[in-house]
């Protein structure tokens, strides 16, 4: 009896210890509701709403500390800083002339603003020093920088050019462009890096393809055809599958990375935009902008199992770092 009781206690403690590891917060920006929907990833339910004010909130990212999130306002051309636990907007700041997207350096010191050309700025990446609260440096890139992802060592920043149809490689230590991969596919956005950092997947938009780029040489070493203009590309946590959105045709395609074969197409309701993987490795979550919802895809069956109603016209997604 005593042994059983001890075993039961140990099991309970293990379960209690493991449970929080797969639980985290997912933030969804609602571009027409001027708000953020807060989703708990264990229940996949909306547990709160953060009011942001006017300006069309779009892309959103968590600071690596997990306490604050930064959001881009498309219409007002400024940024908002959100206290996630307090569920309130702390303040709005102006960095650049027409910011579209954001990413943080892995150490959390620098905010990188992907800024589109405006009356007061060029198409560029702006490095903002959060400690000094000033712009540290900036580098000009091709038209409409859309998405940024860091190399595994944090030294290189890969940036997709939406209308240029390219990927620019920036060395964040020398503050210089050190490479560019041109594919010519307009509406180019999504980037995904393998766990070993050797292959970068780049959505080539209107080319209806996802490119495989060797990060050692910055050369294209493969091309995966998809049945439509591809927007986002996201790897599952185990790296075995790549999920890509074809928002103009309301499709989500699943590609097996072992042989680059498309294994299934999952219909979506209305303009699927971004994809993120739930930290338990069970689900993919997809914003459907014109359905006012987030689709939940079961990764084991590769089928949609439910939707999560959110605000109007959801787009941006940010998963709290663990």
Q: Give the overall average pLDDT.
A: 93
User: How many helical stretches?
Assistant: 1
Give the termini distance in whole angstroms. Answer: 38 Å
Q: Taking Cα atoms only, what radius of gyration do you get, to the nearest Å? A: 20 Å
Task: Record the strand order, biggest sheet.
Answer: 3-2-1-28
Give the uncertain stretches in residue-range form: 1-20
> Which oligomeric state applies?
single chain
Short description:
The protein is mainly beta and 322 residues long. The chain is built from one helix and 28 strands. The strands form seven sheets. A four-stranded antiparallel β-sheet has the order 3-2-1-28, with no helix packed on it. The chain has a four-stranded antiparallel β-sheet with strand order 4-5-6-7, with no helix packed on it. A four-stranded antiparallel β-sheet has the order 8-9-10-11, with no helix packed on it.
Tell me about this structure.
The protein is mainly β. The protein is 5% helix and 52% strand. It is built from 1 helix and 28 strands. It has one helix at 2-18, and strands spanning 25-30, 35-40, 45-51, 57-62, 68-73, 78-83, 88-93, 99-104, 110-115, 124-129, 134-140, 145-150, 156-161, 166-171, 176-182, 191-193, 199-203, 209-214, 219-225, 233-235, 241-246, 251-256, 261-267, 272-277, 283-288, 293-298, 303-309, 314-319. The protein has a 4-stranded antiparallel beta sheet with strand order 3-2-1-28, with no helix packed on it. Strands 4-5-6-7 form a 4-stranded antiparallel beta sheet, with no helix packed on it. Strand 1 (25-30) and strand 2 form a beta hairpin. It is globular.
């Amino acid at each position: 009896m005593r042994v059983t009781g001890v075993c039961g206690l140990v099991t309970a403690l293990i379960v209690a210890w493991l449970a929080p590891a797969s639980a985290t917060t997912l933030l969804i920006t609602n571009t027409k509701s001027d708000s953020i929907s807060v989703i708990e990833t264990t229940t996949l339910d909306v547990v709160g709403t953060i009011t942001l004010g006017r300006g069309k909130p779009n892309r959103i990212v968590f600071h690596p500390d997990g306490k604050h999130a930064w959001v881009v306002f498309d219409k007002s051309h400024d940024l908002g800083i959100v206290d996630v636990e307090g569920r309130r907007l702390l303040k709005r700041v102006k960095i650049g002339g027409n910011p579209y997207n954001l990413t943080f350096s892995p150490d959390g010191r620098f905010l990188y603003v992907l800024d589109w050309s405006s009356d007061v700025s060029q198409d560029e990446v702006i490095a903002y020093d959060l400690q000094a609260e000033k712009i540290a440096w900036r580098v000009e890139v091709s038209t409409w920088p859309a998405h940024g992802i860091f190399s595994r060592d944090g030294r290189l920043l890969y940036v997709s050019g939406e209308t240029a149809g390219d990927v620019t490689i920036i060395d964040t230590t020398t503050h210089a462009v050190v490479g560019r991969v041109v594919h010519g596919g307009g509406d180019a956005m999504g980037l995904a890096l393998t766990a070993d950092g050797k292959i970068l997947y780049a959505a080539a938009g209107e080319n209806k393809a996802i490119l495989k780029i060797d990060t050692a040489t910055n050369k294209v070493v493969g091309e995966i055809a998809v049945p439509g203009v591809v927007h986002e590309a996201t790897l599952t946590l185990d790296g075995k599958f790549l999920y890509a959105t074809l928002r103009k045709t309301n499709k989500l395609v699943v590609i097996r990375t072992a042989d680059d074969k498309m294994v299934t197409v999952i219909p979506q309701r209305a303009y699927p935009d971004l994809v993120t993987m739930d930290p338990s490795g069970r689900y993919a979550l997809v914003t459907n902008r014109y359905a006012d919802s987030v689709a939940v895809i079961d990764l084991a069956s590769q089928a949609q199992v439910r939707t999560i109603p959110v605000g109007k016209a959801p787009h941006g997604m940010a998963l709290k770092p663990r």
